[in-house]
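Before going further, it is useful to explain how the protein records used in this thesis are read. An example of such a record is reproduced below.

***
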Amino acid sequence: MSDIIKLLPDSVANQIAAGEVITRPASAVKELLENSIDSGATDIKLYIKDAGKTLVQVVDNGCGMSETDARMCFERHATSKLSKAEDLFNIRTKGFRGEAMAAIAAIAQLEMKTRKHEDSIGTLIEIEGSVCKKQEPTTCSAGTNISVKNLFFNVPARRNFLKSNNQETRHIIDEFERVALPHYELSFSLIHNGLEVYSLKPANFRQRICSLMGSNYNERLVPVEEDTTIISISGFVCKPEFAKRTRGEQYFFINNRFVKDANLHYAVFSGFEDLLPKETHPSYFLKIEINPAQIDINIHPTKTEIKFEDERSVHAILRAAVKRSLGRFSISPSLDFDHEKSLDLPLSKMDELPKAPQIKITPGYNPFKADNYVAPEKKSSFPIPENQEVNLNNWKKIQEEFGIETVGKKNDVPTTIEHSFLSSHHKQDLAENIFQIKNAFIVLKTNDEVWIVDQQAAHEKILYEKTLAQMNNHETANQQQLFPVTITVTAQDFQLLKEIMPDLKLMGFDINEFGVNTFVLHGMPGYITKGGEQKLIESIIEQYKHQSKDFKIDSKNKLAVSVAKELSIKKGQLLFEKEMKHLIQDLMLCNNPSTGLQGKAIIYKMGSEDLSKIFDK
């Protein structure tokens, strides 16, 4: 029987390795940027075209390579970082395995120009699918210039799995930020399709965070500092009120290397001790310095996971550091009777104490005269639709649900929702039979049942169906702003907003690009109150990111859910009688009004039999 085990050719082995290391253009960006940092570069420029599918180019002023090293760097497991096994436990560089360049060259058309500072002539190398096409002397600047063209050109199946340009660009920006944040002493530039996205100059850590995330982060950051014999911690956490629904802005850097670690995240989370709003996550930018011999970074192909020798101690120190910083800067709630300024009251001011309120009366008022009563005007706290048409089927459904008898002809249908919920004969009954509990639930008594309605879930359902119908029907009615509003977002959010902008316009938002990471808002849907446009757009983006975890629904539905959740009335909001009536009316016109957006119940019905079972026990 002949032998069947064969040694794979280098080109095939490199393509297999590329499947682990290079999964998308952002992976190539990460490896090339880290190589530039290891080379001692102080100025690094990243150029990308078509989200990196056409071109990923990194230019640095690092140490450069000789002719022999330039050719050798494309061989598998060829590295200048390691020489013996013990070196694995003293790694301070970004790369060390010598796989990245060989993996990239196996699945792309690559060109490299490199020159050492002491040399007068550099080296040009062209490689295509692991095959060296050209190697010759050339004139070039000191440092290294690598161009990766047509990534996955020889692996079309993998190229087909790439997402849209906006999504892939977001991944590239994410990797760029992970490298640029801890190395704030270096200059970085990012140019996408000829437009400069970032131009970062040497700065301190706080300034680098604000340069990448936005100047408004300056007021959000709380410094964290801790120095022990085990680890040293420095960086910032964001104040609890700026917590987000997604985990996007959470950065751990172990010896300046970005890592993902669920236990470290839990340590920070527990350090906030119930200060965070429900279902939100803290933002943080934390650097941890530790002896390389006490960690193992060689446990994952992308080197984003890490193993600690004494994980429990690291967890405890990190938690204590975060908690101490929040307390030191008065973020944690406290009541200090010695220092609380609001309780200080000098004796000289005792005569200025607030006086008891005086009661004013109207002598001519007679409560027994009906014409003396003027109902106070109550402003609605959420949008009430005007003159919305109601069809016969929906009206019959409302009648059946509430046991309403129509006054007049049998099939009479009111023309607006204002008159569709109850006939004039029953309106007074509704006023007596609808009220709120804890400003969160609406209680409604029908003929033989008591309904308890979750007001937030009900309004989310109404807004979701209204928003989705408007987008599907291409109804673009909006209210124009008297003065257009400029919206500035992060580079990642800029790409996301570009992606969902067509659906936002269908919804009624008149929004357009206006420079780098900037949009201009000319109008909004009529049911959205003016004011706080910047915060509204940021909140919609954040909600959309949160909804993006569900891959079962398309982007249009995700956006409709995001808008509904952001604009809905919340639990704890007082509603007047008219508002409660309109909320129930609109809910009854929805498809399946009893079920909310996450499949949870909106209405809980309790009949006389249910009540009897409770009291007969």
Q: What stands out?
A: The chain has three domains: 10-202, 209-328, 362-617. The two ends are 81 Å apart (CA to CA). Confidence is low (pLDDT under 50) at residues 334-351, 373-392, 402-431.
